Amino acid sequence: xxxxxxxxxxxxxRRWFATLGRLLTPLDRRLYxxxxxxxxxxxxxxxxxxxxxTTGRKSGLPRTQPLLYATDGDDYVVVGSNWGQAHHPAWSAxxxxxxxxxxxxxxxxxxxxxxxxxxxxxxxxxxxxxxxxPGYDAYAARAEHREIRLFRLSPRPxxxxxx
Length: 163
Fold this sequence. Notes:
Deazaflavin-dependent oxidoreductase, nitroreductase family, Pnp Oxidase, Chain A, Split_barrel_FMN-bd, 5 helices, single chain, alpha+beta
């Protein structure tokens, strides 16, 4: 791991970093698309990142969020930390309402089905995700009245509708 990525992982625990991250998310999403995932607003780093596109549970419109992820076999696992805010991120509620989604990795798009992780499986994946982004511990402490949601995103073949 580069010293730059190590620095980012240390800074990720700081409240100001989370605030800045929330503010820069729209720009990060755009930069990811423009560079095929090679750059983000925090520069070129070694953190595994993807774009997750869900269907808005109220609007029915596509909603895209840049996220860090871990792999588990062929699946991707993402964290609904919402930077440690008191409420769950909207994209996680969208997945609960409609588990069909799309992942963008670089210039590849993959249709996925989301499953909320619970129990021992959630605990196992939480440990791995904390190794990728140690700031999740601080986010969980700040979001003290909710359990942070973890989702498994399993690739699925295109069925013509992908509903």
